[in-house]
From TrEMBL:
Species per Swiss-Prot/TrEMBL record: Roseovarius rhodophyticola
Entries under Gene3D superfamilies matching the protein: Probable tRNA modification gtpase trme, domain 1 (3.30.1360.120)
Protein name: Aminomethyltransferase family protein
Coiled-coil region list: none
Location of the Aminomethyltransferase C-terminal domain: 300-377
Length: 394
């Protein structure tokens, strides 16, 4: 039975005792979240907070939009290092990895041989032949190891934890927290090593919100409690606190950011879901290239605007009186005052502006319209720092 029936969901909470979480991993700030009443989902066999008892989902959304919020994610950094690291990366990903300079980040999309999507994530090029690939939820590490046969490269599953500080005051927090202030350069998709309270930490100008923001990487050798105390002190004057994925999810839907294995999977190509622009057909062979050369280049995944209801995940989409697709994600946007989400159409015939009917969380069908993503800030100027947009609450 598929989860997300629009009425209930299954999450994890901590309780006394031991057992049956043997293969799960808590991030290093798990115990610090406890005071907020966290509830978790499992992501890469790691616990990631979905919501907190002391912060309403809408309040968390507005915290992200008007101040700053921190999510300790379940993303899994994998280190790929060695003389053939770049060669392997360019084989695994459809993007042109070799063009990404040291000190910069890239968006890595991996496909199966038939062009179906395996996983996505952000990688940081730390050295000429050393990368950290922060993968979304998915079976990637063994796929990478299998294709590295005969290459001079190591693929290491790390115990590094990734946290995101996002929102309009996030750069003020970085300025206060880093010993030497905001590093220069530190443009969009840049990376840098900074001193946080005497600890050397990698940060990247990335995130899952399309808000102004950055991420920091807590390694096993760090004093995690001291690191968080330092960042929390720097963030307090700017309104920062921890929050859950539910609040971030609203913003990522507004921003047109996809989720692996729900908005796309092995049945969809990058072209189907609007990621065709990342496919580097001009580079040497990569896994899935032959299939993608022949694939339909038209898009089937679009944003959705539904004034009457919140789209139900896995709900049906009707067009011209027949079932024509399904909802892959849904939420209510407090800013747009609209039900929003994504729909994957069965064919590429319908496009933005098409009027459809979708199933809502109430189990009823409602009028809706396909929309281009992002739903606003089309040029993505907010995360690049070119547009300061602190919305007023309706």
């Amino acid at each position: 039975m598929i989860s997300s029936d629009g009425k209930t969901r299954d999450l994890i909470t901590s309780r006394p005792g031991s057992g049956w979480d043997f293969n799960m991993h808590r991030h290093v700030y798990h115990d610090l979240e406890a005071k907020h009443g966290p509830h978790y989902t499992v992501y890469n066999r790691r616990f990631m907070c979905v919501y907190m008892d002391d912060l309403d989902t809408d309040e968390g959304y507005w915290l992200l939009r008007t101040k700053a919020a921190c999510l300790h994610t379940g993303e899994w950094p994998i280190e790929i290092v060695g003389p053939d690291a770049t060669k392997l990366m360019d084989l695994l990903f459809v993007n042109n990895v070799a063009k990404v300079k040291v000190g910069r980040c890239g968006y890595g999309i991996a496909c199966f041989d038939d062009g179906g999507l395996l996983v996505d994530g952000v990688f940081a090029r730390l050295e000429e032949n050393r990368y950290w690939y922060v993968q979304a939820d998915g079976d990637f590490i063994n796929w990478a190891r299998a294709h590295a046969k005969g290459m001079d490269v190591e693929i290491i599953g790390t115990y590094i934890n990734v946290s995101q500080i996002q929102g309009p005051t996030s750069m003020d927090i970085l300025e206060a927290a880093a010993k030497d202030g905001i590093p220069s350069p530190f443009g969009y998709f840049g990376s840098a090593w900074v001193d946080f309270g005497g600890q050397r930490v990698l940060i990247t100008r990335t995130g899952y919100t399309n808000e102004l923001g950055w991420e920091f990487y807590t390694e096993p050798h760090h004093d995690a409690h001291a690191l968080w105390a330092h960042l929390e002190k720097a963030g307090a004057p700017h309104g920062m606190r921890m929050f859950g994925l539910d609040s971030m999810n609203i913003r990522r839907l507004e921003a047109g950011i996809l989720n692996a294995n729900s908005d796309f999977d092995e049945t969809t190509t990058p072209y189907d879901v609007g990621l065709g622009g990342f496919v580097a057909m001009d580079k040497d062979d990569f896994i899935g290239k032959a299939a993608l050369e022949k694939a339909d280049k038209r898009q089937r995944l679009y944003g959705i605007l539904c004034p009457e209801a919140t789209p139900r995940i896995h709900g049906r989409v009707e067009w011209n009186g027949a079932v024509a697709g399904r909802v892959t994600a849904g939420a209510f946007s407090p800013y747009l005052q609209n039900g929003i989400g994504y729909v994957l159409m069965d064919s590429p015939e319908a496009g933005p502006g098409t009027e459809v009917r979708i199933e809502g969380n109430d189990g009823q069908m409602h009028p809706a319209m396909l929309a281009e993503t992002p739903l606003y800030d089309k040029a993505c100027e907010i995360p690049r720092g070119k547009l300061v947009d602190i919305p007023e609450r309706p």
